[in-house]
Design brief:
It is a single chain. The protein is of the alpha/beta class. The protein has three domains: 70 residues, Orthogonal Bundle (Arc Repressor Mutant, subunit A), CATH 1.10.10.10; 127 residues, 2-Layer Sandwich (Nucleotidyltransferase, domain 5); 160 residues, ATPase, nucleotide binding domain (Nucleotidyltransferase, domain 5). A five-stranded mixed beta sheet has the order 6-5-4-7-10. A five-stranded mixed beta sheet has the order 13-12-11-14-15. Strands 1-3-2 form a three-stranded antiparallel beta sheet. A hairpin with a 3-residue loop joins strand 4 and strand 5. Helix 9 packs across helix 10. The two termini are 43 Å apart. The N terminus is likely disordered. It binds zinc ion. Zinc ion binds next to loops.
Amino acid sequence: MVRRIEVSGGSQQALRSLNEQRIIESLAEQGEMTQAQIARRTSLAASTVSNIVSELVEQGTLERKKNLGGPHGQLIGLIPTPGVVAGIDVGKRHLTIAFSNLAHEVIAEQQIDLPLGHEVADDLKRIEKLLNELCNRADLDRSEIHTIGMAIPAPIDLEQRRISSAQVMPGWAGIDIPSTVEEALGIPTFIDNDANLGAVGERVWGVGQGYDDLVYIKVSDGIGAGLVLNGRIYRGADGAAGEIGHTTIDDSGVLCRCGNRGCLETVVSVPAILQLASPIFGAEITIADLIDQARSGNTGALRLLEDGGRYLGIALSNMVNILNPRAVILGGTLAEAGDILSQPLHTVLKRYAVHGAVENLEFKRAQLGVRSNVLGAVSLALEHTPRV
Ligand SMILES: [Zn+2]
């Protein structure tokens, strides 16, 4: 017997407004989508999505945009409401801020260098100055910034709202980051790990569009991975998921900053590769120079980058065996090496991962480059921006 559950008028109304909110939030986070994509992303029935979209278009909250073709190809987007959100990417050595309007269009963006070992008090002044500069440029008042999303290059304990490992950015360790930023700037602030937001950035704005299961791996000064599983960022019980940089490659290898030996980061991060390069190429060599040397056929430079690709392939094949993502996206500074790095990586991945997990795996280079973190931070801010 099927039991019919009676829903009172009030609860029906509540359910409807909850569903409306889900659709608006998913468009805010993801940008324009077709109705079928909205249905998939919100897990709502196609008919429910169609009804709510029609109503919100009539109300002036949503608009029907360009048609990609076919009967269901019409994109639905939010009608811009006044104001912007700010995405902020605080790296070990850079600070990037991007403004987006509430319809998901980036309207201003700027990056400055940071000194190594920068401290939170100085950084807040730098952020304040850059926000004001961008406001001037975009002809905005500071009060028009609704929300800040912030990418931090360290594991984040979202419950404690702080960095859970102080080794990466000690100048920001031990504080409640959203409250500190909010107090200094007067704008509601949300944070996440940079690799997670890099994954979000690529999924919303770059080569990860349309993928519900992807691994984004960022190889720069450190190595981290952002995991999107079943369409959601997977953070793990304590926010430490995706710490692929500290998987063991050589148990008797070099001591790592995490306290273990021979972690992936000790053999393939930018500092690790430069250290290996320095006896031949000198201590001043940069990763861009080394990549140039490899492109012009220098065997030593080629060997270092190819070895790096192989080590990444070993760590990634373990991850692919466990998670079976549809796409792996390689980002960060080292991704600039292109095929020199990714070909040996791909060869190892195909050899070490089980056939079922790599058969349909798509391997991609991050499209947004260094912008993926800041755009992911924009998306985080948009997700948390209430709409009237
Ligand atoms: Zn380690």
